Amino acid sequence: MEGLRRGVGYGSPAVRLGMVVFIFAVVMMMMIPEASATRWTVGGNKGWTSNVNYTIWARDIHFYNGDWLFFVYDRNQMDVLEVNKTNYESCNADHPLHNWTTGAGRDVVPLNVTRHYYFISGKGFCYGGMKLAVRVENLPPPPSSQPINEKSSAPKSTYHGRLVLPAVLAVGAVWDVFVRFL
Ligand SMILES: *[C@@H]1O[C@H](CO)[C@@H](O)[C@H](O)[C@H]1NC(C)=O
Ligand SMILES: *[C@@H]1O[C@H](CO)[C@@H](O)[C@H](O)[C@H]1NC(C)=O
Ligand SMILES: *[C@@H]1O[C@H](CO)[C@@H](O)[C@H](O)[C@H]1NC(C)=O
Ligand SMILES: *[C@@H]1O[C@H](CO)[C@@H](O)[C@H](O)[C@H]1NC(C)=O
């Protein structure tokens, strides 16, 4: 048995390496849709601070579901509070929906729901303009798709599900083959 298997060559280093490379390629293919997510440093190289108009900063950016906001700031002075629209407009920091402040002055906020998000800094800085409103959109259709029409404007989540599940099954099948001949 052992001789036969070795003769066929399933256990040879070259075949094993080939399988590892193939699995790696499949995993990379699965990751491509996710790789389009962007981490936006709020305020660009000025960061999260006073004297920046974040309405202007955000005006030309499309924020997509799956992106992140990265707040970089002076941890001894400012903070990052998510509030509702009313409290964003009035700079009321007393009822945050979410306190994203970790204490490091570097906070990452996942934009994982398609909606409006409102952020302010407490401690009085909001009144000076330290407030950010972003609208998070669904991912646009993939570049290769047809011009916009009723069918191709289906939500991106459907696209993700269609692509990822077969990929997971494919990896499982390849892994099974790999383990059997190891
Ligand atoms: C925001 O929350 C406040 C309470 O902190 C509430 O009075 C107000 O109606 C809320 N606004 C919206 C738009 O939900
Ligand atoms: C937000 O959380 C940070 C870290 O836990 C804490 O120090 C700070 O007091 C909190 N701020 C508010 C307004 O709740
Ligand atoms: C979005 O991210 C937050 C924070 O990580 C998490 O608590 C929440 O469950 C996520 N929501 C969805 C819809 O994935
Ligand atoms: C930021 O700029 C917008 C558009 O020019 C303006 O409407 C808004 O009042 C400005 N905000 C602050 C806090 O200066």
Protein described:
- 35% of the residues lie in helices and 18% in strands.
- With 182 residues, it is an alpha/beta fold.
- It folds into two domains: 2-34 and 156-181; 37-137, Immunoglobulin-like, CATH 2.60.40.420.
- The longest helix has 26 residues, at 156-181.
- Residues 53, 55-56, 129 line the site of one 2-acetamido-2-deoxy-beta-D-glucopyranose (NAG).
- One 2-acetamido-2-deoxy-beta-D-glucopyranose (NAG) binds at residues 79, 81, 96, 99, 101, 103, 122.
CA(first)-CA(last) distance: 15 Å
Order of helices and strands: HHEHEEEHEEEEH
- State the shape: elongated
Biggest beta sheet attributes = 5 strands, mixed
Bound molecules: 2-acetamido-2-deoxy-beta-D-glucopyranose
Low-confidence stretches: 1-8, 148-166
Strand adjacency order, main sheet: 2-8-7-4-5
Secondary structure elements and their pairing?
Elements: H1 2-8, H2 13-31, E1 39-41, H3 54-59, E2 63-64, E3 68-72, E4 81-83, H4 85-90, E5 98-99, E6 106-110, E7 116-120, E8 131-137, H5 156-181
The structure holds 2-acetamido-2-deoxy-beta-D-glucopyranose (4 copies).
One 2-acetamido-2-deoxy-beta-D-glucopyranose (NAG) binds next to helix 4.
Summarize the structure.
The protein is of the alpha/beta class and 182 residues long. It contains five helices and eight strands, in the order ααβαβββαββββα.
